[in-house]
Write a structure and sequence with these properties.
324 residues; mainly beta; Immunoglobulin-like; 6-stranded mixed sheet
């Protein structure tokens, strides 16, 4: 499944690109980790001192970028193809041996390797088992790195990660070469959506509509008349949360996109720390089944508006102290 970052109005995308450009240029780019130009990562990419979580990875496992080399020049919107050897891909929540799912790190250092990988603008999760994703980046130089996570989004032990590569985004650059196309498959039958029980409701415990919040608020999810189950686990009257940021509802009979504006919480989280730029933002919760498809009828919250300020508090004067 492709994760479409640019499926919203152009004005929002341009604004986000500008914000990202400011945020990412404010700090020096991280130093490139070892591994060479476009080489396979894996156990060799981690020092002996780096240990992951409780899920073991087999010897020789490696994750790498397909058709994307260190130093590549790419357009603002391009497709990243993920390669994996020695292990299989499985959705978040699936406790399958020698498997995991991909995470793409953008312009950031490695997170703690024995903890769940963060879920924000710089740590993109592909918990539905995707092996490619469409991303959008502002012009300039960026670093990219792949890290495999287990059913709980925790890196394996030893960690399976690619070398960090650098790409330069240039308007009008040619598209990244695509991976070889698989043979055509027969059209898949339409998925039958899981029913939701009467009076099921998802809502924000925190924040409430109109709140002022910091740039890294903890969003708490509430759910009535249904239970929470991780992605990949099919149980009646259950689902997991998705947070929609500054975007309308997606098609409700298809898997929810996985990008900057559609955050997936496929391990069954009921709260999450997110990163938001300064300014006003809309938030909405949407529940989905084991395959990230909304229920029938869909269970989603009212859309709320929050304002992000540096202090996390209401400014003393909206005109003079905007977003302080």
């Amino acid at each position: 499944m492709r994760a479409a970052v640019a499926g919203v109005a152009g004005s929002w995308s341009a604004g986000l690109a500008a914000l990202l450009a400011v945020m990412l240029s404010a700090a020096p780019a991280p130093a490139q980790s070892g591994g060479g130009h476009g080489s396979h990562g894996g156990h060799g990419a981690a020092s002996d001192a780096q240990r992951g979580g409780p899920s073991p990875s087999p010897s020789g496992a490696a994750v790498y970028f397909i058709a994307l080399r260190d130093g590549a020049i790419v357009p603002p919107r391009f497709t990243v193809h993920f390669g994996l050897t020695g292990m299989g891909v499985a959705p978040a929540g699936s406790d399958r041996e020698n498997s995991g799912h991909h995470h793409l790190l953008i312009d950031t250092e490695l997170p703690p390797l024995d903890q769940p990988i963060p879920n924000d603008f710089q740590h993109l999760h592909y918990g539905a088992g995707q092996t490619e994703a469409e991303v959008t980046l502002p012009p300039g130089e960026h670093t990219l790195q792949l890290v495999l996570g287990d059913k709980d989004h925790v890196p394996h032990s030893p960690p399976v990660m690619s070398p960090r590569i650098r790409v330069t985004v240039v308007e009008g650059a040619g598209a990244v070469a695509a991976a070889p196309a698989p043979p055509p498959a027969a059209p898949a039958a339409a998925k039958t959506r899981h029913p939701s029980p009467p009076d099921a409701k998802v809502y924000f415990v925190y924040p409430k509509g109109g709140a002022y919040v910091s740039r890294n608020p903890v969003i708490r999810f509430g759910l009535i008349n249904m239970g929470v189950a991780p992605a990949g686990i099919a149980k009646p009257n259950t689902g997991h949360h998705h947070l929609l940021i500054d975007t309308p509802l997606p098609p409700l009979d298809q898997p929810i996109p996985n990008d900057f504006q559609h955050l997936h919480f496929g391990t069954g989280q009921t709260e999450a720390k997110v990163t938001l730029p300064l300014g006003r933002h809309t938030l909405r919760l949407l529940l989905a089944d084991e395959d990230h498809v909304p229920h029938d009828p869909p269970v989603y919250s009212e859309e709320i508006t929050v304002t992000v300020t540096k202090s996390g508090r209401r400014p003393r004067s909206a005109s003079r102290w905007r977003y302080r």
